[in-house]
């Protein structure tokens, strides 16, 4: 019985540390382990049982949010659902995409999205087509995140629906010469 209590406390303390780090990042605040301990009322020993250092905690927070995006992907990248997720955590994404407060987030996000695309590319046998699709997919993905970063900088002045329409127009017009394009990996349908 006591093991469950300890496990629950361990889960709670780890989540409290992640929540505090997310809050600091979202507010654009650099923070120390001492700041985290004060905000969470967690002991230094407990912190170090969970994480080797502050960067390990930030990697864990980043991974949770990246996984939240990856969990949305089925056969296609759901543009509208990801826009919705970004809006729900707008402060974090603004700091992570536009400011220097969380510089490891965006490269890791793109790396994992590239890896997810790579799984879909395994079924393409022609190496030239595979290379072209990978290139197109990366251009579309980088453009998508650049649009989101700009949208966040502009305080989300456009509605999600208008942002989705603009993004759809940009990429449906730009990549149309080849019948087999990376656009097949993207779902541009609006949310119900």
TrEMBL record:
Domain of life of the organism encoding this protein: Bacteria
GO molecular-function term, one example from the UniProt record: DNA binding
Gene3D superfamilies in the cross-refs: Tetracycline Repressor, domain 2
Any one Pfam family match given in the protein's UniProt record, by short name: TetR_N
Ranges of residues in domain HTH tetR-type: 11-69
InterPro entries found in the cross-reference section: Homeodomain-like_sf (IPR009057), HTH-type_Tx_Regulator (IPR050624), HTH_TetR (IPR001647)
UniProt keyword terms in alphabetical order: DNA-binding
Record-annotated DNA-binding residue ranges: 32-51
Protein's name according to its UniProt entry: TetR family transcriptional regulator
Species, as recorded: Convivina intestini
């Amino acid at each position: 019985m006591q093991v469950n209590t300890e496990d629950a406390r361990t889960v709670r303390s780890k989540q409290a540390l992640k929540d505090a780090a997310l809050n600091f990042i979202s507010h654009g605040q650099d923070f120390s382990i001492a700041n985290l301990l004060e905000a969470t009322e967690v002991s230094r020993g407990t912190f170090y049982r969970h994480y080797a250092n502050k960067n390990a905690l930030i990697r864990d927070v980043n991974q949770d949010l990246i996984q939240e995006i990856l969990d949305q992907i089925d056969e296609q990248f759901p543009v509208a659902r990801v826009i919705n997720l970004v809006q729900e955590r707008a402060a974090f994404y603004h700091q992570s995409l536009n400011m220097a407060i969380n510089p490891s987030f965006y490269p890791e996000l793109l790396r994992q999205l590239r890896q997810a695309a790579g799984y879909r590319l395994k079924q393409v046998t022609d190496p030239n087509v595979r290379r072209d699709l990978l290139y197109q997919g990366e251009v579309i993905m980088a453009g998508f995140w650049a649009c989101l970063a700009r949208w966040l900088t502009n305080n989300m002045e456009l509605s999600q629906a208008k942002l989705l329409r603009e993004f759809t127009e940009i990429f449906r017009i730009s990549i149309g010469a080849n019948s087999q394009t990376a656009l097949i990996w993207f779902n541009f349908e609006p949310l119900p």
